[in-house]
Amino acid sequence: MAETGDKASDLLNSVFEQVGFDLNAVAEKTATGFFLNITGRDTAFLLNEGGELLDALQHLLNQALGRTLGKDERIVCDVEGFRAGREAELRAMALHAAQRVRATASAFVFGPMDASERRVIHLSLSNEEDLQTESIGEGNARRLRVSRKPSAEV
Question: Rounded to two decimals, what is the model's pTM?
Fold first, then answer.
């Protein structure tokens, strides 16, 4: 199983070398799969447009190596703590949405988000007894709605 992490870092490092990026990926085994920390002078390229290239590389690795991962495991790529910062931001957004829904009794709909971002919000609000979350829409336009549970409505 550890060889999956090695394959992932080798693949990324090969791509970085081929395109001339000064970047290096190092894999670490975690409880949920593998964490690839990417460092180097060209990290800004991976974080442009909200980390789209970083997301694309992570998606590529999970597609290419997903069969070698255990059940419920995945590969996460990060640069300079970007993912941790984004997760904290999403949790704060989830709490803000919850407060608005409670104050107005109206549903709150987030803008389009990828699956991993929607998951953070779903999990952040999963223990709220009076609220429910659901993903709505299709493809890249998929959004997340936070609303009162029918039994909690006034």
Answer: 0.71
